[in-house]
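To: structure subgroup
Subject: Chain for Friday's discussion

All,

I'm putting the inputs and outputs inline so they're searchable in the archive.
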Amino acid sequence: MPKRGQVFGDAYRSVPEELMTDMLVLEGYAGTTDMAAARQQARETLDRARGNGLALRVDNTGQRLYDPVEVISHLKTAGRQGRDDFWPLRMMPTLRQFVEDLAAAPKALPKVVMDYSRTFNMFAVPPEKSLRLRMPLPLSERYKTVNIETHLPAEASQERKSDGRLEVKVLTASALEITCGVTLTLEPHGQDMLPPPSDPDIYLRPKEGLVMISDQIASLAERLSGNARPESAVRAFWNYVMDEFQFCPIHYDQLPADMPLDWVIESGIYDCQLASALFVGLCRARGIPARLVGGNFLYRHSPTNHYWAEAWLDNSGWTPFDFLSWDLSNGGEDSTWREHFYGRTDARLVTECLPQSFVGAIGVAVPPVWHILRTKSHDGADIQLVDLNGSFIYKDQIAIR
């Protein structure tokens, strides 16, 4: 039965061509020093995509507007079908280079220093309103040492640091933007240092955010694993998630709240969060404690946000499974990269470990439909959550020294 994919349309096509070009520069040229050439090649990529059938919208000023979810999905599909070379020759090799560069970092320099700021849009917030703004912080159990230096706005009246979260109380006054920031010094330790679950039942819950174990998910988990031991079951789940889907951005407003994982199966697509949630759901359906973990890569040129899964296995403890391996291995076809993040990850900024540790509501209203825009900055990456009118809700600026 063919997969239905996701729906695209003019309502989502709201990102100007120059900004879409900047996003493609991060995806395919983030490590280059010749940014003028990178931007020109990114423009040519968009030109080719239009020639290959990529849709766009032209507004009443003649400006060309794109849906970034549609653009990346189109480029990946065209690349895998042999109709365009941006995915196989730019996106995938760029990502592999990030992974290899971090792996080759000098072991004599185990500490990572990261500058992380979050700017909130106050345009729609009434003056003199008190808000509690939130941004991610590292989870202490993931590191040998953590040092956090906060940089607070003039509007701040109170700060509260907890595991995984900085909360700043502000009085909005007349500011149109408010920025909170931190400088983090991190010394990661190994995955084997994570403690066993004190209450395994927490990680077996059938309903938790995107992890919703429906009859279809339970039946699928049983069919894939049978009566296999947990180690064999997670292998079967990994192979299924790697082989039966395409990794691409997602319009989250299209997910049904009561059966998000069923939507993944029926659509045939996922992003890092949904792939991990599906893996967690399959594990839990067979009695294997599993959880969703989130944070940011420590890739110098692209320290962007990401999710992966962890499952509890008696012989290896909390064991990570990261479906970034789909992107690294061309959908699982390259055996050299297919298993790269099976049972391990590289060093990361870890800020969430669901269901117990999470950032929570950011403090300003988030619309039901939005885009995440990731672009290259001078020394790292900018990540914006924007509405379909182009106004940012918040924007993160992240750099690794």
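Points worth raising on Friday:
The first strand starts at residue 15 and ends at 16.
Residues 86-103 form the longest helix (18 residues).

D.
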